[in-house]
Amino acid sequence: MTNMNNPFDPNFGKVPKIYLGRQKIVEDIVQSLESGTGPYQTSMIYGMRGVGKTSLLADITSTLEQKNNWLVIYLAMTNDLLATLIQSIYQEANNTIKKALDRIDGVKFSAFGFELEVHVSNPQSTYQVLLEEMLKVLKKHDQSLLIAIDEVKETPEIVNLASIYQIMVLKEYPINIMMTGVPKNVGSV
Q: How far apart are CA 139 and CA 166, in angstroms?
């Protein structure tokens, strides 16, 4: 018989009501991300199912979402990670940043997504250029971006996103990524 009042019952994708000693960890991670220095710019939270990876990610992202200078984008493991990232940045941005993003040449944003105004043979390289232009806008407006991916797996799309992300980090754009996964799926991500 299950105790209905047990606050420690694991539940898929739900944030528990009580954490055991996690608040200090969350504060340290958030502080490190806000300072722009430290080891958490690129983070992988991994462990067996049910240990609280998603809960920790949710606690960190909800803390950052409350801050005016952070944009938190959640990505699901789909085939169109870059396009979804670009569309989500626009949709989650405030009106001032949306107006600045609307001035990027060669793209037209709308509530339904975005259109590239030039014919391209390789959309992946175009997405990289567009993401970089968007990050320039975010940097100019003192906004930082956190990409959150739960239950990551090694796919060609995640490898492509990681490659482009690495370039953006090298160019010192305000971009961060935090992922969760089980050990068998994140061994080489």
A: 17
Domain CATH code at residue 140:
3.40.50
32 belongs to a structural domain: no
Read off the pLDDT of residues 16-70 as tens digits, 9 standing for 90 and up.
555 556 788 899 999 999 988 778 999 998 888 877 888 899 999 999 999 999 9
Is 1 inside any structural domain?
Answer: no
Q: Which DSSP string corresponds to 76-140?
A: -S-TTHHHHHHHHHHHHS-HHHHHHHTTSTTEEEETTEEEESS--S-HHHHHHHHHHHHHHHHHH
pLDDT tens track for 109-140? 766 666 655 545 555 568 899 999 999 999 99
Domain count, the chain: 1
Residue 143 lies in a domain: yes
CA distances in angstroms from 157 to 77, 119, 126, listed in the order given: 8, 22, 15
Is residue 181 domain-resident? yes
Q: How far is CA 24 from CA 20, 30, 60, in A?
A: 10, 10, 11
pLDDT, position 150: 92
d(CA 137, CA 173): 10
Rounded to two decimals, the pTM is: 0.82
- Domain of residue 83, residue span: 43-186
